[in-house]
Amino acid sequence: MRRKTVLCGCGAMAKGWLRAVAEHEGLRDRIEIAGLVDLNLDTARALADEFGLSGAVIGSDLGQVIDETGAELVFDVVVPVARAAVVETALAHGCHVLSEKPMAASLDEAEAMLKRAKAAGRIHAVVQNRRYIPGIRRLKAFVESGAIGDLTGIHCDFFIGAHFGGFRDVMEHVLLLDMAIHTFDAARFVSGKAPLAVYAHETNPAGSWYRDDASAFAIFEMADNVTFTYRGSWCAEGANTSWESQWRITGAKGTLLWDGADSFIARRVAEDEGFLRAQEEITVPGAPDLSETHGHASVIAAFLTAVETGTPPETAGDDNIRSLAMVFAAIESAERRARVAISPL
Asked: Would you give the distance in Å from CA 304 to the centre of its chain?
């Protein structure tokens, strides 16, 4: 059964969603892109032409397109400030919704979305596609194996000179709100620890082409005395890191290094004596389930399974709001130049 779906927001990000559907047989057989919605109808028509969606209904009013197509799913790929209205409309028309990140432009908006989804009896989930890449799955499984002992810290570096143009160039807190949430969510996922508090600092370095702060540094206190640190910049030219950040995970007995791509190095102490203890290198096993490591496609597949079974997906809104809370707490900390506690959600 192919479920009729309306994609709302036909800008550059939408192409990644449509490629995921088109290139994975398991999605092609389950999804029909029945409608495309954008304020600029020419943009929607161009997207339809590019992906061969000649039968899709084109419109600028989401509610009307949902009614005309009989869609039961909405892919929300609009800019963050428009997300709340899109999700509200989709839920009011009886659709399940999969949203681009960030989940909302504020925690109040996110909490309102959760209430509306619950009242409508529909699923609202978020595309945290970094959870569904092999590296992140490998990190989580390795930490849970206890190979380096009890987890003590996660430390991530993200430095890329990204020249987007468009809304990001004038977006407030652009790194924290639009990109850092991927690493924050991944750190919460890998560690299995709840965030408790944060101290953060934002800057806009000399030479930045962004209007507002495009560099950020944050120290998170996590449950069980685990520390998560993040250093990042979207205007750091030269020696780019991976888009997934560079990771150092420390345990009571050893350390795991991941370059964000293909290099995994793990070492642990091999002796009980000496000023600097002798170390041994240990193997980091591959991802435990390769069917869950296709990024965007895996998120969409998990969302569809949730719709079919009623089981909440891994990136359900009521879980993802915890990662969003990390972002807004970091923003508040940077603005106040003070430690900010993160309330349980």
From this structure: 18
Residue 207: partners with Cβ closer than 8 Å, 6 or more residues away? 235, 237
Q: Are residues 114 and 138 in the same domain?
A: no
CA distance 336 to 334: 6
DSSP 53-71: -TTSEEES-HHHHHHHHT-
The residue type found at 138 is: R
- Residues 6 or more apart whose CB falls under 8 angstroms from that of 289 comprise 137
Number of domains forming the structure of the chain = 2
Q: In terms of domains, do 164 and 284 share one?
A: yes
Tell me, yes or no, if the pTM score tops 0.70: yes
- The burial class, CB within 10 Å (0-12 / 13-18 / 19+), for 25 is exposed
Query: Is the CB of residue 243 less than 8 Å from the CB of residue 161?
Result: no
Read off the tokens for 105. 């432009």
- Cβ 155 vs Cβ 248: under 8 Å: yes
Instruction: Tell me the residue range of the domain where 15 lies.
Output: 3-122
Count of CA atoms in the C-beta half-sphere (13 A) of 113: 30
Indicate the helix (H) or strand (E) that contains 334: helix 317-336
Mean pLDDT by 10 residues, the chain (345 residues): 93 91 86 95 95 94 96 94 95 96 91 95 92 90 95 98 89 90 95 97 95 96 98 95 96 96 92 84 82 77 91 91 95 97 86
What is the structure's pLDDT at 9? 96
Q: Are 98 and 212 contained in the same domain?
A: no
Beta strand 246-251 with 254-258 is antiparallel
Q: Which of 236, 246, 233, 229 is nearest to 330 (CA)?
A: 229
Q: What length is written for the chain? A: 345
Q: Tokens standing for 242?
A: 């991976």
| Antiparallel, parallel or unpaired: β 215-222 and 226-233 | antiparallel
Instruction: Return phi, psi of residue 26, to 5°.
Output: -65, -20
b/e 260-288 (16+ beta carbons within 10 angstroms → b):
beeebebebbeeeeeeeeeeeebebeebe
Q: What residues form DSSP beta bridges with 97?
A: 74, 124
